[in-house]
Amino acid sequence: MSTEGMDRRLHRYFDGDLPAEEREALEREIADDEVLGRKLVALGDVRTLVRSTAEQSISDADSAAMWAAIENGAELGTSPASAKPATASAPQASVANDAKSPRPALRLVGRPSDSTEDRGAPAPTAEIDPASRPSAPVAEDPLTRRRRRFGVGIGLLALAAAVVLAFVRPGDPAPRDGLATTDGTTPLDERDGIPDSMRTEVLAVDFGTNVGTIFAVEGTAGQRYAVVWLDDAVKIDEGGASPEQAPN
Amino acid sequence: MPTHAAPEERERDRLLVERAQQGDHGAFRQLFDRYHKRAYSVAYGVLKNRHDAMDVVQEGFVKVHKHLASFQGSSSFYTWLYRIVMNLAIDQLRRRKTSRPVEYDDAISREEGGTNEAILPRMADANPRKAAIRRELIEKIDAALAELPEYHRQVILLREIEGLSYEEMAEVLDVPKGTIMSRLFHARKKMQSALAGYVDGDMDIE
User: Fold this and answer.
1) How far is it, in rounded angstroms, from Cα B78 to Cα B39?
2) What residues form DSSP beta bridges with A206?
3) What Cα–Cα distance (Å) separates residue A97 from each residue in A104, A200, A230, A243, B107?
4) A61: Cβ contacts below 8 Å, ≥ 6 apart
5) Residue A91: CB partners within 8 Å, gap ≥ 6?
């Protein structure tokens, strides 16, 4: 038998794949042949070495986190890749992205009547940066508060202007009576062809420490769009880091 | 950990699968408890990245749960699971190869913890010089595994770590038994070549 043929037989023996008769015959050969014996030892060495790295990797597995992600994915029908509670990669990626992003977060705030606890609550379609949501109310110095109020005031003024522009265009005929009826026979969108389902109403915008303006523009087909303009170049709070200076 | 070949373990798996198929959440949890670490080991062996390996295991078990009703039991549960995990790991590896290089540094740094002593019997002891040799050896093992083509690494992991038989590996990898034997033979030769000096025997290394 060739050397390779013998080696293959040795591998099968090592893996327990040889029939009993062949196994016994080979064992006799191994007992008489030192080289074969050393080859067998070498096969065991490789196995031991490979297992040694695997044992260590198993100890790194976070079972509880994996199970939590599996429960989440299996029961809610979402993939664990999207859930990602088990690995640190998701939050790390988020932090990395935050660090790369020079643009400050834009947060929609609740209705004026909302309680403090409700402000900044998750709003899946509106929330841009969850990391920017404060986890608890924090003390704010008076200067920052005044500046924030100033920004919000400007925003509200601009919002009012936008509303006026959007609904009472100069030169338009006065709204007809009956447009706002509640019986559904005369919808509010009759004037501009925009269905109710597509209408939005901006209640408030928190510009944070930035200056911004809201205004309305008219599309080519006469549609009206509300535009929120954030001016990164003008920051009210000079004490904070500029958008380009991402935190480490 | 379960012994794959033991008939009683297979029977236990079969019963757990049946209960899980009937909606027994606890049975599915038991299957997870029995196999997630081994699945992780396989995934980690392919990916060499802890987070990616965990993602793959999670996704694998979610797939298992999703398709459990259609599992007929013609193969054993763990070969089915390993097949899913292995395929996911290979997919992940291929995606990664298009985006970033494979990293083995974390595997190397983990060895600093020094928990491998018990498993490196003849090559290690408390001697500092030998400890250094051991660190170097772990690096070489990782590098040797990294150098293997996917199909060789797969058989090494499934055979040497998981202890799957040729038939089980053929099932997991969906190739004939002869292919498995050939791949394993050549994979071992490559490993022996890469680790020459750390293993005993006159290898006839090609």
Assistant:
1) 9
2) A107
3) 12, 30, 20, 13, 26
4) B36, B37, B40, B41, B44, B50, B53, B54, B57
5) none
Per-residue pLDDT reduced to its tens digit, B88-142: 999 988 887 766 544 443 333 333 333 333 334 444 455 677 677 777 777 888 8
- Asked if A113 is an interface residue toward chain B (Cβ–Cβ < 8 A), one would say no
Of the two residues B42 and A171, the one the predictor is more confident about is B42
Provide the ipTM.
0.74
Is residue B194 within 8 A of residue B151, CB to CB? The reply is no
| Shortest distance, CA B74 to any CA of chain A (angstroms) | 22
Query: With contact defined as beta carbons under 8 Å apart, do A80 and B60 qualify?
Result: no
Q: Average pLDDT of B177-203?
A: 85
Is a pLDDT exceeding 60 seen at residue A1?
A: yes
User: What is the 8-class DSSP label of residue A125?
Assistant: T
Contacts of A6 in chain B (CB under 8 A): none
A195-220 pLDDT, tens per residue?
555 566 666 666 666 667 776 767 66
> CA-nearest residue of chain A to B68?
A74
How much is the average pLDDT of B56-63? 94
- HSE of A173 in the Cβ direction (CA atoms, 13 Å)? 5
Give the B window 133-162 contacts with A, CB below 8 Å: 137-138, 141-142, 145, 156-157, 159-161
| Sequence-separated contacts (24+) of B17-26 with Cβ below 8 Å | B17/B68, B17/B71, B17/B73, B17/B77, B20/B65, B20/B68, B21/B68, B21/B69, B21/B71
CB interface of B with A, residues 85-114, below 8 Å? 107, 110-111, 113
At A114-127, the pLDDT tens digits run: 333 333 333 333 33
Dist CA A198 CA B182 (whole Å): 64
| CA A139 to the chain's CA centroid | 28
